[in-house]
Amino acid sequence: MGICDLHCHLLPEIDDGSVSRENFERMLQLYRESGVGSIAFTPHVYNPYVTTNISMLRGTYEWAASIASSMGLVTYLGSELFVGTQKVLKSVPIKNTYSLVEFGINLPPANLFERLEALAGTGLTVIVAHIERYRWLSVESPLLARFKDLGALVQVNVEAVESGLALPYLHAGLVDIIATDNHGEESLPGRLLSVLGNWPEVYQKMERMGL
To answer: Domain total for the chain?
Structure first.
């Protein structure tokens, strides 16, 4: 069935992704040719820096899922939840199981773990998106142990693996997922499989997720 890209922004006209409806099928074809078997579309929600067209989300996903299905690709609708000041965290979970979350770069949100614990208490597994971006969450940070105690999974971006930014997390065995965070770059599906070929232990973790 192939691996799943668990983080991307490819639904046309929904958030800050750049894929048009006319080029959407071509992008999916590149995923299929690269050996990716499934895709989780994860548009931004509650991100103060990104406008998301929530009213079009379900309809656009159904359109996209129909095209993907005709090409033999499995799709999931999820979201990338920005954890800011909201008291209660609400997301669109991937396969009703995984909640992808992101944070501000410079400082952790207030009462972060209390809110994440409440989210996990609903039966969802938290995925921390592109962990390499957060200046307050280095490999040595004791906060990483708290994420792991929560049962959270750690995701890094393909580009961060290639640049070396994600390597400390990989060498420490902390990474559970490598994903594209694709906003429209056609080379990323192939690069995802190439990077995973160099980190088979992460590939195996992703296979066990059942997506």
So the answer is: 1
